[in-house]
Structure formats: structure tokens, C-alpha cells
């Protein structure tokens, strides 16, 4: 079992928020399994439908007949990551390469269908798919593999990273003021490096997805060891002049 655990309360909070209509689609996670290729495909499709906007209606029409095939191919690779017996990523560096492969595949194949997305759009789809899967009933059997996952980057997380973590390289300070939806690959990779530098000394046994759950939902991150009530939330409350 991994030392980096996403606490059950955090995962339940995320599911409850979706169920209350905090996002565009209210989804049910009941009975879904990471061991089911159909359920993994559904996670990718759900994330695409709720969080990856087309730039124009014309783009959406042009790729309507093909985009499900792209999503199913992405889902198949994610399914293999969790269930394959072959050469799957088994450390952070290998996972980072796998993550980039998924993002590039999505961008290239959607481009072939006539739709242009940014790397920021691609990372949101891939990272949210992993976040959805972390809420499936058999998460604990795969906790080791979730310990490598990235945080889904959006406006909420960018604001928290800047204001609470004081992470270098987000929003107006860098990238020419680009929003996450306009991030190119180099922007995203620099941000990942910087938030890891800020998080690693303080995150304890919380993986990056656990921190994302905290920031997005506002819940307290409880230590999985059950030995204390201290949380990384203490760090968030430092005054801005403590930089």
C-alpha cells in the first residue's frame, strides 16, 4: 500500500459536490471499478463532456463523429496503466512521460479531426480522469499508482497555488498573463515543477491529487496514519508577507 493516500473523506466530499450540481454534470460513481474498461472509458468521457470546451460550434460539429474514438483510445491507455502486466510507469519520472504522451495524443488526434485545443485543455482532461478514477470503489487497490498523478490545473487551483502556496510561475507573473486554457506544454511543465518544489516539504503523506481535493473542495486533509490532526492547511494560512 502506498504511503501517499487520498483520504476517503476527501473523495466522498468531491463526489457529493458533483452530486449537488457544483459542476455541469451530476454523475454517479456508485459501482464503478478501475478494473472495468467500460468504467474507465466513462470517466474520460464524463471529464471531456464537463470540462473540455470546443472553441467554436463548427469545431464541435466537424469532429463529432470521431472524438469518441479518441477518448476511448486515451481510456485504453489509462486502463492499461492500472491493469496491465507489461511495461507500465512505476515511478514519477516514468509517469510524467506517460502523462505527456496522453496529452500529446489527445491534441494530435483531435487536431486531425479539425479541433484545436491547448495543452492546458489536454492536461485538464487527463488529470480530471485520474481524479474521477480515484473516487471509484476499488481506489485503495491502486493507491500506489495514484501517488504519481498530477493536479488538474484550472483557475481555482492557480489562485490557490499563488495565494496560499506562493508558487512561482502562475497567472500574470509568468507566461504573458496566459490563463490555464492557453497554456502550452512548457508552461504546464514549469508550473508542475514549481508546485512540487513548494509542496514536497510540507505535503507529508498527501499525494498531489489529495492536495487538489483539499484546494478544490475546501475540506481538511487528514493524515492517513491517524496519528495526528495537524494538516497542511496550516501552511495555507500563513500571511502573505511571510514569503
- The DSSP helix count reads 11
Shape: globular
For the record, the count of structural domains works out to 1
Secondary structure: number of strands: 0
Would you identify the regions where 5 or more consecutive residues have pLDDT less than 50? Answer: 22-26, 220-243
Distance between the termini: 36 Å
Average pLDDT score: 78
Q: What is the strand content?
A: under 5%
Helix-residue proportion: 40-55%
What is the radius of gyration computed over CA atoms, rounded to a whole number of angstroms?
A: 18 Å
Write down the secondary-structure element order: HHHHHHHHHHH
The main β sheet shows up as: none
Pairing-aware structural class of the strands and helices?
A: mainly alpha
Summarize the model shown:
By secondary structure, this protein is an all-alpha fold. About 55% of the residues lie in helices and about 0% in strands.
Description:
With 243 residues, this protein is mainly α. The chain has one domain (8-242). It is built from 11 helices and no strands.
Give the topology, please.
Elements: H1 8-19, H2 37-51, H3 57-62, H4 67-83, H5 92-112, H6 119-133, H7 143-146, H8 155-163, H9 185-199, H10 208-217, H11 233-236
Helix pairs in contact: 1-10, 2-4, 2-6, 4-5, 5-6
Give me some keywords for this one.
243 residues, mainly alpha, 0% strand, disordered C terminus
